[in-house]
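Sample pair:
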Amino acid sequence: MLKTTLAALGVIAFAPSAPAVLLPTEVNGVWGDASWELRYGRPPTAADAPAERVRVHLEAVISRLRDASLDQMEPDVLARRERAIDALQEYAAVGFYPRNLDDPSARPEFIDADGALCAVGAMVAATAGREAAEAIDAAFSRDSVWAMDVPAVSAWADAYGFTPLELALIQPAYPPEWHHPRYHTELAIGARIGAAVYGTSDYTSASEGLTKTADPALDLGLLMLWQPGVHWGLGFALNAQSNLDDFYAGDHAALSLNLMGEYCAPLISNGRLDLLLFLEAGGMFLPGDTAFSGVDYGGGVALEAPLGITRTTLRFDLRALGYHLWSQPGRTREIDGVELLATVGAMFRFY
């Protein structure tokens, strides 16, 4: 492994002349994680900070660029090249790199949502101005430099003495921020409160009456989710709902304990708003009347946004709920119902 690493770092002429496929967490498409393995004698892990991996890669790249044999390069081009490499060295030392908060795989990011420039973007901004870097970002925000085959990029590379292969060697693919809640095993506990905004009930016995619209109901929920990754979670939802469809002349509360699975996707790339799709199903019963128990099932959408209070997020749920309640032997009435519920609450995460 180490011999391969040394060869990769020492002889750039033997590097591929076509874009290499990025592995899910490799920091560069040409060298991969060779710079890290050379320095530490092991591959990087999720415990190694993405910013540190980028810095180690850039330091190795800068050393290789400084040592390149450029006897045939025009003096004015060589001088511009050195200024660009100086800018890259300053950029590597400062450490204000793009952050990958919404993709579990390493990927390029020319300018991120916080305005952090990528390595190549920093060189362009330092030599041709921030507007030039932003113009490239507008067209190729998350593309490899191999895809930036446009006159403006080619002209800059020629003027500053860089080959496409060298730019690909410089460009990091930013690993995911594993310490971010979305990429870490976590337990989320929260509560929600809201109302049933619509509902109907169908009574199987004609003597019990017609379909009726539900009265507004108070819905209380306790959620507990285990979320092992960026995209999905699994847990439980305990719901208490008052006056569920007015089963009798008086008011009754219904309880349900549901298994819930959810899929999470960033709605905004900076990680400040997530869209969740979820399904839940479980048992339902009326504590006030042991004659009825049954099942409920449903799903919906939710939005989550950080509140800026430790690891607490604001959650808004809109879900449709179907249920079937049946009576004990000797009673003829069974009830099917549908409701639409809107709730708001907060989730606190442990990881």
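The chain has eight helices and nine strands.
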